Amino acid sequence: MPPQPLALPPALPSELLTFILSHQHSSTTLLICQSRATFLSSLLDSVNIDTREDELSLPPHPDLGDSEQPSSPPRHVPNPPKRHPLLIPTLHQIATSRNIKLVFIPTISHLRAYLSVLSSTFQLEGLRDKGGNKPSLLVAYGLIELHRDTSEWSAQGLGHSIAVLVEAGARCRWGLVVVEEKRGDDGEGEDESEHMRDDTNLGDEEGQDEEEEEKQKWKRKCKVWEQRVPMLNGSVRRVGLESEEGGWSGRTVEVGRILGRWFKFGRGNWDI
128, CA 20 to 30 Å: which among 25, 52, 121, 261? Predict the structure, then answer.
């Protein structure tokens, strides 16, 4: 019996691929809910971001001491450029990637059509775990964002797509995971920098506030689940209201409540 469907916090494309290649030993079908060009562009940007962050975290190369060369000024030897793990073709990565299938889904119609014909016949293509110990995995990346700015941006539209996804996973006996793409406008970096500045004045209270800070950080990461959508397709925004919560006519509901009917919320490796 496949495990309960799981909804994980947003992740960068590089974070998701690294996690799958490192921890997923069974066959995986990755539904990319955007065009191929858009995904590759986001993947390239995220790889560059991760590489720059790793280079900044590296300690500087040790300079030559004055005792060794007292007459010459210290020389700074730059650190060699560090390659992203996705760019290193290890044997494990090559072997694991053979069991990963990428499917690009540019529209909601493509998504529902693909899921409607997804059946055990796909397992004949080698997408089933040959060991038999773990079920195959179906990962939907950017499912919620795919519905934004469309007539399906509602509880009715999202519920329809999620129900089709869950039905396809149950039909194939595959595990289900839903992950959204991490955006740069979440405000996470700004909030973290404010916390870092405040930590210098906490003193003995730092340990007491650490748990509260972790809760706030988790809440910022899961902000995508707090988005509110109208109940029915074709709902109209009220003129003059810019906030998404109050801009819809009629009742609204959080995206997390829609997902919560089928999915269990968890943490990803990139959140640790």
Answer: 261
| Of residues 121, 114, 120, 171, the one with CA closest to residue 140 | 114
d(CA 166, CA 117): 13
The residue type at 134: K
Q: What is the pTM of this model?
A: 0.75
The contacts found for 184-191 with CB under 8 angstroms, 24 or more apart, are 186/10, 186/220, 186/221, 186/223, 187/220, 188/217, 188/220, 188/221, 191/216, 191/217, 191/220
DSSP assignment of 79-133, as one string? Answer: PPPPPPGGGS--HHHHHHHTTEEEEE--SHHHHHHHHHH-SGGGGGGTTS-TTSS
- Give 67: exposed, middle or buried? Use CB within 10 Å, 0-12, 13-18, 19+: exposed
Q: Are 1 and 175 in contact (CB under 8 A)?
A: no
- Interatomic CA distance for residues 158 and 229, integer angstroms: 9
Strand partners, 179: 8, 141
**Predicted local confidence at residue 110, as pLDDT:** 96
Tokens 């590489």, located at residue: 51
Whose structure tokens read 């986001």? 42
Distance of alpha carbon 255 from the chain centroid: 16
Cα separation, 80 vs 262, in Å, equals 47
